[in-house]
Amino acid sequence: MKINVLCIGDIVGRPGRRIVADKLKSLVREMSIDCVIANAENAAGGSGLTPQIYTKLLRYGVNLVTLGDHTYRKREIISTLETADNIVRPVNFSELAAGRYFGTYKTAKGPTVGIVSLIGRLFMKPAECPYNAIDKILPQLQQQADIIIVDFHAEATSEKIAMGYHLDGRVSCVFGTHTHVVTADEKIMPKGTAYITDVGMTGSHDSVIGRGTENVLKSFRTRMPVPFEIATGDVKMNGILVAIDSISKRAERIERIRIDAEEEDTTRYDSDDGKPEYFSNFE
Hints:
Layout: E1 2-8, E2 10-11, H1 13-30, E3 35-39, H2 51-60, E4 64-66, H3 78-83, E5 87-88, E6 102-106, E7 112-119, H4 130-142, E8 147-153, H5 157-167, E9 173-177, E10 187-188, E11 194-196, E12 201-204, H6 213-222, E13 226-227, E14 235-245, E15 251-260, E16 278-279
Parallel strand pairs: 1-3, 2-12, 3-4, 4-5, 7-8, 8-9, 9-11
Antiparallel strand pairs: 1-14, 6-7, 10-11, 12-14, 13-16, 14-15
Helix pairs in contact: 1-2
């Protein structure tokens, strides 16, 4: 049986959420998508996720939610991480950190999709070894999911590519997030795993990875803390569509998906976005 899985790249702020709200359900119908996975660690004001926005994403049609280095930026999400079975934090965070190691979603066709989030260690804050972490959790997840997808939230392309080879033939898809810039290296690896280094960003592309260009330039030039507001122009949804055989677990096809918004979103925030945070540089 073929299962179509859509993996959406980092949703950034209200513009990213709006295009998901406007476009996702029709895309699911048109492309016969069985499961939607979205990285949402930047969905609330550009950094973190709130319970209200998590609930909205599910209403828009997202089935599984992954997070990354900004998992705990909004502390109110912790209770959701501890109770919901379809949202995951990186498995190679401390074992004492709040949240689940993996999430599952039973498709209408029957097969269950499992999702794991990993975080990189190159140019990132300290974390446990992602290779050891995924090796430890896979046997448990294989008992609960027919198809396994891995979101590797990492900065270095070399680290992501290495993980693709490490997991080739052991999971159905490895997709990268975090850099917000889509790569053109999608492929089926030798043992049947679909792979792409980064699926890109869902948000404003007239920006510096989703933030307004003026203050980002000011930050880089002066090293002074300035607010990184969410940009609103040229909004796109980026992701990949992967067709997977639920019996063999092998990916049969992977393609990049890019959807343009029909109109510019000129509203910067809504009630559950919060104010922009201040950074002296990108974290």
